[in-house]
Amino acid sequence: MTIHSTGEAGMTNEELCRGLITADSEAEVISLLKRCGYWEDSSLWRYIGDNEANWSTIGNQQRDPSPPSRRSSSTLLTRY
After folding, report:
1. First and final CA of the chain: distance in angstroms?
2. Contact 31, 22 (CB under 8 A)
3. Are 11 and 3 contacting, i.e. CB atoms less than 8 angstroms apart?
């Protein structure tokens, strides 16, 4: 079973999950999501709580006190 029709043929959900769990960096996570066809397909992503202005929720969870502009991708975390 492949992950996503535009993704890397042969990668299973389990393989993707294991890859995401063992990724050592944000770059590795993004690379995996790109290979599976998830990263570029905005129809697969939602804002947490379906709220585009969710920085108060997301920012409150971060260890890095950087301003939101440096972590704008952090607000897109859930898939439906």
Report:
1. 19
2. no
3. yes
DSSP tag of 37: T
Tokens standing for residue 26? 């944000």
Measured in degrees and rounded to the nearest 5, phi and psi for residue 78 equal -110, 150
The token pair at 47 is: 């804002």
pLDDT winner (highest mean) among 16-20, 48-52, 57-61, 71-75: 16-20
Average pLDDT rounded to a whole number, residues 76-80:
53
Tokens of 2: 């492949």
**Chain centre distance of CA 68:** 16
Angle between helices 26-35 and 13-22 (to 10 degrees): 170
